[in-house]
Amino acid sequence: MCEDPEPKINLPQHDSFTSARPAQPRAMGDGRVVVRCGASGKTQLKDLRQAGSTKVVFPQNHGAALEAIIVNTAGGITGGDRFTLKARADTGAALTLTTQAAERAYRAQSGEIGCVTTSLSVASGARMNWLPQELILFENCALQRKLKVALADDAEFLMVEPVVFGRTAMAETLQQIRFHDRIAITRNDKPIYLDGMDMVGDAAAHMARPGIAAGANAMASLILVRPDAARQVATLRKMLPATAGVSLIADDVLVMRHLATDSFTLRRDLVPVLDHLTNNSLPISWRL
Predict the structure, then answer these.
(1) 134 with 105: CB under 8 angstroms?
(2) Residue-level pLDDT at 169
């Protein structure tokens, strides 16, 4: 289990057979990225750490924000894996974080859970985009994921978290998963957005319920913390299908929820929205 004060996902006890098995090798990854605003006004890399199965690469880009791509060299996440990432944008800096491809949560052995913890910090006058590509859940996966974001009073932040419940093209149906997800965004140590999901058991049955997803197989949450958030509501509503919604929870905090039949439809709808909100500087890995 992950070290976390929050309630854990209930997992079955080891039986005598599984307990007798030798421990399997597990992937560990740790990354740290810190950027600063240089004398010329251009964002520069200040600190970088990458260890284990986590790598960070920096493609050449000419936008205002420095772009970093997170790579999981293990190829996915399974029970017992541990991944941590910390990123900070110092005063006046701009950073965009994304992933090389969709992340995959694979089948876990009984009694094991994979853990992914991301901590982001955005200083005064700084801007950060957290734009990972979709997380794909597989049958019998067990994953606990946490995203913590700490913002200064005038920091700007954009994030999207797409999740896909099995690959529709492969006719996958998820009847047994364990997925525990938490998002916490604070400003000056006060919460402005808290969200969580616990889905244990038959995901397909849960997603089929009209009050949950009405049969959708993919979903995304998008959060925008920016002074012009209120002005974006009408624009985004015109861009989105009937299965998505946009609202303000504060004058400068916009929340978008999106349901889609599959990952292709979800991405098709998200790319124009993200293009718009990033001023056409969406990382190229999103288009591959």
Answers:
(1) no
(2) 75
